[in-house]
From TrEMBL:
The lineage of its organism: Bacteria, Bacillati, Actinomycetota, Actinomycetes, Bifidobacteriales. One of its GO terms (molecular function) is hydrolase activity. PANTHER family: UNCHARACTERIZED PROTEIN YGJP, UTP PYROPHOSPHATASE. InterPro entries: UTP_pyrophosphatase-like (IPR053136), YgjP-like_metallopeptidase (IPR002725). This is Metal-dependent hydrolase. It comes from the Bacteria. It comes from Bifidobacterium aquikefiri. The keyword Flavoprotein does not apply.
């Protein structure tokens, strides 16, 4: 980064709401940082971990972080992942160029959604038969949908799991990894040491699969 001070944070917008008690509470704080000449949108909100994303449509870089994380920690988080950002952008450009040359695009037509849903429905029963006895907990519902920032999600309180339809086009072991990842959230809601211990017990090679999945760009 060009500066060690806070001047790399170019602007700030606070979003607030007034709760039932009458107290004002922040829901998010959005800042724009300039890093290596690139704008990076940094959003602080009530989350547990930091996340970095590259938007497939416009290449915009965004980071979500908890309120408690310092500016310096966020700056280091971005800097330490800059090589990954550049690699992901190259892969995104390759995909765009290939789509232009072939005359195809990533527009999700009704037929494409139907095919993706069918692909996943064809393999999910066998995966669930394999992994539910291993994980030892069962979701109340699994839904398939397009997701712009995640490969999957889980709401432990309701035991509902959502999987990204884009997984239909990836390697089968990556769909398997995301499914087990979300099932594991039925034991541990966060991604801390407890969650990682469960994952290692259930799927010893999960970190390798995660690295492979992280080379793919959502969207």
């Amino acid at each position: 980064m060009e500066s060690n001070g806070k001047d790399w944070l170019q602007s700030k917008v606070s979003v607030v709401y007034r709760g039932a008690t009458g107290r004002t509470a922040r829901t998010s704080v959005v800042r724009v940082a300039e890093i290596h000449g690139r704008p990076v949108t940094i959003t602080r909100k009530p989350v547990k971990n930091m996340y970095l994303r590259i938007q497939s449509k416009d290449g915009r870089i965004s980071v979500t972080a908890p309120f408690r994380i310092s500016d310096g920690t966020i700056r280091d988080f971005i800097e330490n992942r800059w090589d990954w950002i550049e690699h992901a952008e190259k892969e995104l450009n390759k995909a765009r160029n290939a789509a232009m040359e072939s005359g195809t695009s990533h527009v999700w037509s009704t037929a494409r959604k139907r095919e993706a849903r069918q692909r996943m429905n064809d393999v999910l029963p066998a995966l669930l038969n394999k992994w539910l006895p291993i994980v030892g907990r069962e979701p109340s519902n699994i839904s398939l949908r397009l997701m712009t920032t995640r490969w999957g999600s889980c709401t432990p309180a309701t035991r509902r799991i959502r999987l990204n339809l884009e997984l239909a086009w990836l390697e089968p072991e990556l769909l398997e990894y995301v499914l087990v990842h979300e099932l594991t959230h039925l034991w541990a809601s966060g991604h801390g040491a407890s969650f990682q211990r469960y994952m290692t017990t259930f799927m010893p090679d999960w970190k390798h699969r995660r690295r492979t999945l992280n080379r793919h760009i959502i969207g």
